[in-house]
# Entry
Amino acid sequence: QSVLTQPPSVSGAPGQTVTISCTGSSSNIGAGYDVHWYQHLPGTAPKLLIYANINRPSGVPDRFSGSESGTSASLAITGLQAEDEAVYFCQSYDSSLSGWVFGGGTKLTVL
Amino acid sequence: QMQLVQSGPEVKKPGTSVKVSCKASGFTFTTSAVHWVRQPRGQRLEWIGGIVVANGDTDYAPNFHERVTITRDMSTSTAYMELTSLRSEDTAVYYCATELGSGNAFDIWGLGTVVTVSS
# Structure
C-alpha cells in the first residue's frame, strides 16, 4: 500500500533547527503531486503550515519552510520555540489509491 | 473568523449508521470543497471522501465508497458525512476540512467528532 513515511519523533533545543522528512513513492510525491504540511496540537484542529511543497499561508512564521525532491519532501523549522511542540504530518495525493494519503505524523519535542 | 464546527460525540452499535455534521462560518461555503478524514487511535489519518459544494460532485476513497455518503446543505452552510454498516474498526475521530484556495490543501479543519462503535 502506498503511504507516506515520517519519523515517529524528532527533538531539538530552543533556537535550533529540526527537519522532518516525508518519504513517498512514484505514485504520489514522485508523480509530481503537491505535498502539504500540517501542525496538530492535542485537542485542537490541525493547522495548515505549508501548501504545494513550499508555500506558507498567511500568518505562518517564516521559521517554517518546505522543500521537495524526487519521492520525498521535508519540513524545516528554524529557531525552535517551546510552542512548536506538536505533531506534524504531511499529505499528498496518490494515483494508485485514487485519493489523499497522509504521513503517520512526527512528534516534535522541544527540549 | 473562519471555522468548521462539528457535531458532538456518537456511540453506535455495530451494523448501524452514523451521520456527522460540519457547519461552516466565516468564509464563502459555496465556493469551497469539504473533505472528511478519520483517525483511529494510534493510527494515521485516512481520507474518506469529499464534496464540491457548488455542484454537489462527490469523490470517495475506494475503501469507503460502498458505505459512505457525503452531502451538503447550502442554505445552512453545513456538510454531512454518513457512514453505514458500522463495525468496531470504524471507531475513530472524524474530521471535516475545507479547501479554500491554498492549492488543494485543506485550509481549515474542524475539531473532530469522536465516533465509538461498540456492542
